[in-house]
Amino acid sequence: MIRYLLNKMLLTLKKRYHYDVRYQQDILQADLAAFLKFIGFQTMATHSGPVPLDALYAARIGALLSEDCGPCTQLAVDLALEAGVAPTIIQAIVQRDVAALPTEVALVVNFTELVLTRKPEADALREGILALWGQQGLIALAFAISAYRVYPALKYTLGYGKACSQVVVDHQALVPKVSDDLSA
């Protein structure tokens, strides 16, 4: 019965966001305990702390773009739009147009990239994040960056990974841009 209810939840996600949930269904059918742990992981992935949604989604989308997962990125874009993040902000994040972003969001885009490429320049930007949102904000961004990398890794491991080719934001198809450091 629990598998039936959990699968119904997955089918709702699939229908609402046009998202392929087969990898989650495979986990659910093969190992209920593993699936329940996956659901528990969602609490980490959805943590936001004091970080504004546009900055939070900058970290989430940046992490997904670094892992080259189109469907995951599209889902995050759809969730950001649903949460009220302006399409122009999301477009600039996807296309890595930091000049078009508010200062705080640009800070998070740059910080995310530096963290993902393990560049020491992240230290200076971390100080800016701490000044804006404190330790709780830094933790929220750390959760966003690390948790959102799990989804593509999980999907690719299970054979469901799909490379990123385009993302639709507010009916406009965009080709994501990632830093040369992230695409290497």
Describe the structure.
The chain is globular. Helix 2 packs across helix 3, helix 3 packs antiparallel against helix 8 and helix 4 packs parallel to helix 7. The model has no long low-confidence stretch (mean pLDDT 93). The chain has a two-stranded antiparallel sheet with strand order 1-2. The protein has two domains: 45 residues, no CATH class; 138 residues, AhpD-like, CATH 1.20.1290. Helices cover 71% and strands 3% of the residues. The protein is mainly α. It is built from nine helices and two strands, in the order ααααααααββα. It comes from Alkalimonas cellulosilytica.
What is the arithmetic mean of pLDDT? Answer: 93
Largest sheet: 2 strands, antiparallel
Q: In CATH's first tier, which class of the largest domain applies? A: Mainly Alpha
**What is the terminal separation in angstroms?**
46 Å
Shape: globular
Q: Beta fraction of the residues?
A: under 5%
String of helices and strands: HHHHHHHHEEH
The SS-based structural class is mainly alpha
Number of domains: 2
Provide the CATH topology of the largest domain: AhpD-like
Low-confidence stretches: none
Order of strands across the biggest sheet?
A: 1-2
Helix percentage range: over 70%
Count up the helices.
Answer: 9
Roughly how many Å is the radius of gyration? 16 Å
